[in-house]
Amino acid sequence: MTPQTDDADLIARIADCDQLALRTLVGRHQVRLFRFLMRLVRDEGMAEELSNEVFMEVWRNAARYEGRSQVGTWLLSIARNRAISRLRKRREASWDEDKAAELADDADTPEVTTQKLDKASALKRCLDALSTDHREIVDLVYYQEMSVGEVAQIVGIPENTVKTRLFYARKKLSELLLAAGIDRGWP
Predict the structure, then answer these.
(1) Cα–Cα dist 3/155, whole Å
(2) Of 69, 62, 72, which is closest to residue 33 (Cα–Cα)?
(3) Class of the domain covering 3-94
């Protein structure tokens, strides 16, 4: 008799409430199962506890074993499912409400969000007030993130002209923003 058919016979006997068959199965698979669980949960106490739970589940559900896989494979799949479930519960249980309440909320307050939106719309109005040449240069450099050389090629002007237009566009934009009552920084 091979160990696989022998294990299947043990499961059949366990289904008939044979405690000796369960002890034999435990003796045969406990070390392998424990080592497998240790690699998953990395906690000796938890691995031992889960190992015991696996054999308890085998005791309760031996009659459901269909023989589609080897008994050892069936035991490892039960162990894996139990370990994953336990690790999930441990993660959920480790949430500490007091510590969570102490965490700083880095999100903007509604007031700051509104101020940013107001500034964004004011910035758009100021950009629209720039000349077409200046608006085009600002768009290509800041919004399209192109280099001065790339902008020069696209627009068909020398790089120094791009730099000059960018300088005057920023200067004009700064004046327009100041006139709109907006400083350069965010609150």
Answers:
(1) 80
(2) 72
(3) mainly alpha
**Contact between residue 40 and residue 80 where contact means Cβ atoms under 8 Å apart:** yes
**Distance, CA of 146 to chain centre:** 32
Can you name the CATH fold of 110-179?
A: Arc Repressor Mutant, subunit A (1.10.10)
Say how many Å lie between the first and final Cα of the chain, rounded: 79
Alpha-carbon span 180 to 182, nearest angstrom: 6
Write out pLDDT tens, residues 23-53: 999 999 999 999 999 988 989 999 999 999 9
pTM above 0.85, yes or no: no
**Per-residue confidence at 116, pLDDT binned at 50, 70, 90?**
confident
The band of 104, judged by pLDDT with boundaries at 50, 70 and 90, is low
Distance in angstroms (rounded) separating the CA atoms of residues 43 and 47: 6
How far apart (Å, rounded) are the C-alpha atoms in residues 112 and 118? Answer: 10
Alpha helices (H) along the chain: 3-15, 19-41, 44-61, 71-93, 97-102, 110-129, 132-138, 148-155, 159-179
**What are the sequence ranges of the domains in the chain?**
3-94, 110-179
How far out from the chain centre does Cα 101 lie?
Answer: 22
Query: For residue range 2-11, what is the model confidence (pLDDT) as tens digits?
Result: 666 699 999 9
Alpha carbon distances (Å) from 153 to 24, 138, 150, 158: 81, 15, 5, 8
